[in-house]
Design goal:
By secondary structure, the chain is of the alpha/beta class. It is built from 6 helices and 6 strands, in the order E-H-E-E-H-E-H-H-E-H-E-H. A 6-stranded mixed beta sheet has the order 2-3-1-4-5-6, sandwiched between helices. It is globular. Bound molecules: guanosine-5'-diphosphate.
Length: 194
């Protein structure tokens, strides 16, 4: 079955986004590490399932080994299901994403969000970066341009509206994401015709 996946570090607002997209309520503020295996839900408006992959990255109170297991699980899930995944939504926190990426860029470590973005591209999975919590960001264009730079795509972000989608999930402001996802879905349907 056609599938859209959601990936993102803990606390970026994935549960909030899931709730807004599906109309179901999800357990926000759950204990870190009490993570779920992939969960499937119907996306009310569209004809595919939405899969929530467990939160990853820094999880306080979760041992390093366990974090690695979760990450490996996500990687395998994406590899095994790449064929049927229509779109991946990589959720980041617009307020902190640049700081987090830069903090982990010490030449050896590749920051998780950047790594995941490239990994999804390698698998040929169309990817939308949902930049959440934009209500907390003042210098919107500057922040989004910086994010392009860190992800290795050429600013300005406005050129990448199929890839960079600023949202405020908490207030249900998701139009940029809806449009980006729709564009990818339609691209693929068009491809199928030929
Ligand atoms: P998850 O761990 O990725 O599932 O994140 P949650 O959905 O549990 O959200 C983590 C925190 O971020 C909660 O306190 C949410 O209320 C908050 N949050 C989610 N979306 C937004 C948003 O658009 N703006 C702001 N300011 N906070 C948000």
């Amino acid at each position: 079955e056609a599938e859209v996946v959601l990936v993102g570090r803990s606390n970026v607002g994935k549960s909030t986004l899931m709730r807004e997209l599906t109309g179901h309520s999800f357990d926000t503020g759950k204990k870190p590490g009490v993570t779920r295996s992939p969960n499937h839900y119907d996306w009310s408006a569209e004809d595919f399932v939405l899969t929530d992959l467990p939160g990853f990255g820094f999880m306080s109170g979760v041992e390093g080994d366990r974090q690695e297991d979760i990450k490996t699980g996500i990687v395998h899930y994406l590899e095994d299901n790449a064929e049927k995944i229509l779109v991946a939504i990589l959720v980041v926190d617009g307020k902190s994403v640049i700081d987090i990426i830069d903090r982990h860029s010490d030449g050896e470590e590749i920051p998780y969000d950047v790594e995941m973005f490239h990994f999804l591209r390698e698998l040929d999975i169309p990817t939308v970066v949902a930049v959440n919590k934009m209500d907390k960001v003042d210098d919107r264009d500057e922040r989004l341009n910086e994010l392009c730079d860190r992800l290795g795509i050429l600013p300005p972000w406005k050129q990448w509206q199929e890839t960079i989608a600023p949202i405020t999930a908490k207030r249900g402001q998701l139009s940029a994401l809806n449009e980006a996802v729709r564009t990818h879905l339609h691209d693929q349907q068009r491809d199928d015709l030929f």
